[in-house]
Amino acid sequence: MKVYFQHGSTLDRLETDPRFDAGFPAEVVTMYRRRIQQLRASLNERDILQSRALDTRPVPDRGTDFQSIFLCDGMRLVLHLLGPKPRREVAILEIIQVKQPVRRLK
Fold it and tell me: Most-buried pick from 10, 84, 85, 93 (CB within 10 A)?
C-alpha cells in the first residue's frame, strides 16, 4: 500500500532518521517502524483490517475511514484510509496513548 505522511511530519522523520525518537521510548519507535513496514507490505485495506498482529480498531468520533493499530504499552498509531476500495491508501496521522483496561484478579 502507498503510505503518506503530512508534509514535514515528525512521524515521517521518525521512520527515516535512525537517531530521531520524537520523545518516544525506544520500544515505541521500534514498533512504529515495524508497523510502517507492515502497512507498506499490505496489498489492500483487507490485509490491514484482518491482521490480528495489528489489532486494528476504529477511532471513536472520527468516522469509519479512521483506524488505529497497536504499537505497544497502550500506544496506538492513528491511520486515515484514503481513496476508493479496494485500492485504498494510508495516511499516517499521529501516535496516541490509550487507557489500558484494568485486569482484575479473581
Answer: 93
Domains of the chain plus CATH, in order, are 3-97 (3.30.2310.20)
Give the separation between CA 106 and CA 104, rounded to whole angstroms.
6
pLDDT tens-digit series, residues 21-79: 999 999 999 999 999 999 999 998 889 989 999 999 999 888 889 999 999 888 999 99
pTM to 2 decimals? 0.86
**Amino acid letter, 44:** N
Cβ(39)–Cβ(4) below 8 Å: no
The secondary structure of residue 69, as a DSSP letter, is E
Contact 106, 85 (CB under 8 A): no
